[in-house]
Amino acid sequence: QVSGTVPKMRNRFRSTKKRILEIGKTLKRRSHEAVQEVRNITDKLVDKAIETISDAHRIMDKVEETWGEQISPALKNTIEKLDKLIHTTDKIVNQTLQVNSGKTHIPQRVISLYDPDARPIQKGKLKSPTEFGYKTEITENEDRLVTDYKIHIGNPSDESLLLGTVRRHIENTGRIPYAVATDRGYSSGKNEAALTELGIKRISIPKKGKKTQKRQTHERQRWFRRLQAWRAGGEGTISILKRKYGLGRSLLRGHRGVSIWVGFGILTYNLRRLAAMN
């Protein structure tokens, strides 16, 4: 409890809900006028968010003024959480103002109050062209054991991740792999040259775009096709990790929380895989 007069926090839930319902009804019209009307309604929601942020700041200032250095650990923890929530809300408000002014492309856009590290990820699939969350990168060996994983904020290109992935695999296992197989998303001349320099003998990465006759002959080799068939089996590993080991949806939030969740899922998968092998 805080002694003295504490500023009141106005409950804006009903008015906010009303505006959100208005947006749903307006969008059904699917016209240019409807889009502009939605932006006008969104501006009103932004005003309410700004008023709520101001109320929260006044309450926090009053608490710190009243208690000073005598704030209990529990109350201090609550204040820190509230401060982070206010900071994230402020970012979302600024993003919304930019979108309403016509700037629709915002790098590192925040999409969630409770998971500020999550990002929209373009998947290019008909069913779900855009997903929200994190990009998970998984490396496995010939025994289908996961030797490395990494959670990325946003959607970095596969091409930029390959070399770091292979180096972590070497560090974790203590040996240079004889062969590496990936899909065409990791393809680049620079990557193939770097992997060859690391001492990898066979590199099965289909080239993007138009291929020369020499490249087509290279990719038709038996060992290249066999490695690609093995790589396709990795999709099964990903499916199992999603369906049975919790990688489809994390119940922890934030980059650190999702990394922990995925790590324990992979640990469980590896332990069961090792038990089955023995």
UniProtKB/TrEMBL annotation:
- Protein origin, superkingdom: Bacteria
* Transposase IS4-like domain: residues covered: 126-271
Q: What is this protein called?
A: Transposase, IS5
